[in-house]
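User: Predict the complex with LLP.
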Amino acid sequence: SRTVRRNADGVVTVGGLDVGALAEEFGTPAYFLDEDDFRARCRAWKDAFGPGADVFYAGKAFLSRAVVRWLAEEGLNLDVCSGGELATALSAGMPAERIALHGNNKSTEEITRAVEAGVGRIVLDSFQEIVRVAHIAERLGKRQRVQIRVTVGVEAHTHEFIATAHEDQKFGIALAGGQAAEAVRRALKLDGLELTGIHSHIGSQIFDMAGFEVSARRVVQLLTEVRDEHGIELPEIDLGGGLGIAYTSDDDPREPHEIAASLGDIVTRECAAAGLAVPRLSVEPGRAIVGPTAFTLYEVGTVKELTGLRTYVSVDGGMSDNIRTALYDAEYSVALVSRSSDAEPMLSRVVGKHCESGDIVVRDAFLPADVAPGDLLAVPATGAYCRSMASNYNHALRPPVVAVADGAARVIVRRETEEDLLRLDVG
Ligand code: LLP
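Assistant: Here is the predicted structure with LLP placed in the model:
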């Protein structure tokens, strides 16, 4: 991994800092995020797509005010999917016109706040919402720029819970049966809306570009139908996020420039065939930007050898700081980082401290046979959907996020305290 490195003496460092010293200073469990890597990935995406396209970072992967400032500085836009994410974005100074609001059931309050703030885009997800957003905008005397999210009917090859473009799920308006075309018809009639384009997001942790190609083709097909019926060419296409990252050495992710070339080619080709001007393209990577930039540092508490089976290595966190293994059968790697060891590798399962047996961080791992209480373990690639999906299960205190840059570490999200927990308990 790029974030967990061992120097010539075998000491693991992150951003030039010794992991042991970091654990001492910030405690465990904790997420350590490499700010330079985050910014480099932002630039790689922006450069790959060029000035003719927009990159919206998907805040659901991980959002904090520091992250918002980095995005603003690196010239990225931001996709938010709730009032909470919108509030974080605005409070850290992201210009509203660079924010897009998503969600399949946005509340009246969320929509109102977004329209009032002047967000650059609201992605409409249902027939009800077309009317709802239009009415709110009209009441506020505004014309809101919107896209319509369509369901293109692609079976993306990923876990069922994170695939979003097949027919039988809750997101978007189906292209099938002319529903999306009807949504366009209705949106074009409403004064409060300026329909700028069509949106499609097919799922997450996807490696195969074929699904994106089908999606792009079907979205361009809809733009063609819109032109033929209404005589207008919608100027934007958003193909969503979902690009996979390497969690283990088996994964082989595409680089941003390959993704940009492949999406750019297909959109250009399809538009040329249909005689359409090429619309402005946007994408919404979350995981691909933040996922690889962080690792979680844990301390080993107990080691249980189950003869003939495997060794259970319990760490001081678990499903409350990384639910992905339990929820999606996600695979992670793990490394002993507080010292080097020549001991034989042993089949291990890294588990947390929560009160259920599904509380697994890394299902199958080889750790040195002398792993012992007090050792530090690092689990790489936990930047996306770990802190953002962390919970207080068993009244766990959610870990801090520590940003490392230029050989210095600073907390960007602090560790929760018992006071934080008790503050909400007002019974
Ligand atoms: N755009 C939209 C409309 C989305 O719904 C999502 C993710 C993204 C962009 C960003 O997708 P990414 O590039 O990060 O794959 N909790 C799951 C992932 C859920 C993704 C939800 N939507 C996980 O931990 O794998």
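The longest strand covers residues 294-306.
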